Amino acid sequence: MAGIRTQVVSLMPAEWAIAAAGVALTVIVWATFARWGRAAAPGQVRRIRVDGTYRPAEVHVRAGVPSRLIFRREETAPCSERVVFPDFGISVTLPPFEDVAIDLPASEPGEHEFTCQMQMLHGTLIVDRELVAS
Ligand SMILES: [Cu+2]
To answer: For residue 104, what are the β-bridge partners?
Structure first.
């Protein structure tokens, strides 16, 4: 009787240790993926089509939330091969027919122009205090 009780008691810590390790591992894996998820998908994503103009030419995002702008250049005309955000010091090449993501940090409300490298195409990033459908 005492032998059985001793055996049960001695097994318990090992089982708890395994269970605790399992829970800890699950939490670590979950936290890691959650962090990756946040890094890969900012709060707001907007798509802009480029074909002789920016569509839409006014892109609305919410203030205080990082955003990802995905440009897709649906043409080979050299005019639009770069997009420039002077206020953010960003200048990015847009290969034709490819999605190109530009990540922007959370911003204050305001307006930021974006253009092609020769400033022939114009768009405006509008950072709204409230969410506005775009
Ligand atoms: Cu141009």
So the answer is: 67
* CA dist., res. 61 & res. 85, Å (int): 15
Å from CA of 62 to ligand 1 middle: 28
- CATH number reported for the structural domain that contains residue 117 in this entry: 2.60.40.420
Domain holding 89, by residue range, is: 44-128
Q: Tell me the per-residue pLDDT of 3-35, one tens digit each, with 9 for 90 and over.
A: 555 454 554 667 766 566 665 655 544 554 454
Pair (52, 118) in one structural domain:
yes
Q: What pLDDT, in 10s, does the model give residues 45-93?
A: 999 999 999 999 999 999 999 999 999 999 999 999 999 999 999 999 9
Is 3 within a domain?
yes
Shared domain for 36 and 49, answered yes or no, is: no
Residues less than 5 Å from ion ligand 1, measured at CB: 79, 116, 118, 120
Q: What is the whole-number distance in angstroms between the Cα of residue 77 and the centre of ligand 1? A: 9
Same domain, 12 and 35: yes
In this predicted structure, what is the pLDDT of residue 37? 45
Handedness of CA 49, 84, 98, 41 (dihedral sign): negative
